[in-house]
Amino acid sequence: MSGKQNTPDIEILDPVDDSAARAALAGDDAAVINAENFDTSDGAIDVTDVIDVDAADDVEALDAPDANASLLATPEVLTPSPKAVAKKKASTSSSSSLEPVSALSAYMSQLANHAPISREEEHELAVRWVEDGDVEAARKMVLSNLRLVVKIAMEYRRAWSNTLDLIQEGNVGLVEAVQRYDPYQGVKLSSYAVYWIRAYILKYIVDNLRSVRLGTTRAGRKLFFRLNKEKRALELEGFEVTTKLLAERLDVQEEDVVAMEQQLARPDISLDAPRFDDSDRETFGDSMSGPGISAEAEVGHREIHTLFRKAIDEFSKSLNDRDLQILSERILADEPRTLAEMGVEFDVSRERVRQLEARIVNSLREYMKEELVDFELYTPNSES
Question: How far is Cα 359 from Cα 188, in angstroms, rounded to an integer?
Answer without folding.
Answer: 91
